């Protein structure tokens, strides 16, 4: 599976910019796997979809602006996708570029930020955000 498989156009006017004042009136899309139907509901109706013994798992993660664009010191364009922040100024990131950045290389990111490539960790790059 590739992230490109999930790339599709979604008109900006269909993307919620703020939560509704009454959160229970949030929309809920129901997909029935048996008869392959799709139905629009409201989140306040969610309890109607559970049977005894079912488990509801809540996800309280936050969305961060993790996609950054810039250039390597050599001038090549890069796209940086922060995957995991594990220290105040350090993170693991996926970096898309014509050639992989090398340890010790500096990335010049939009907004005047810079990051140093510290090395690789499996398929991720270990980077440190530098003062701008």
Description:
The protein is mainly β and 132 residues long. It has a domain of 64 residues: Thrombin, subunit H, CATH 2.40.10. A six-stranded antiparallel barrel has the order 3-4-5-8-7-6. 0% of the residues lie in helices and 43% in strands.
Topology of helices and strands:
Blueprint: E1 27-32, E2 37-42, E3 67-72, E4 77-87, E5 90-97, E6 106-109, E7 113-121, E8 124-130
Antiparallel strand pairs: 1-2, 3-4, 3-6, 4-5, 5-8, 6-7, 7-8
Shape: elongated
Radius of gyration: 21 Å
| Tally of DSSP β-strands | 8
Strand content: 35-45%
How far is the first residue's CA from the last residue's CA? Answer: 36 Å
- Are there runs of 5+ residues with pLDDT below 50, and where? none
Strand order of the largest sheet: 3-4-5-8-7-6
Biggest beta sheet summary: 6 strands, antiparallel, barrel
* Secondary-structure arrangement, i.e. CATH architecture of the domain at 67-130: Beta Barrel
Element-by-element helix/strand order: EEEEEEEE
CATH level-3 fold name of the domain at 67-130: Thrombin, subunit H
- Give the overall pLDDT as a whole number: 88
Please identify the structural class as seen in this structure.
Answer: mainly beta
CATH class descriptor name of the domain at 67-130: Mainly Beta
Helix content: under 10%
Helix segment tally: 0
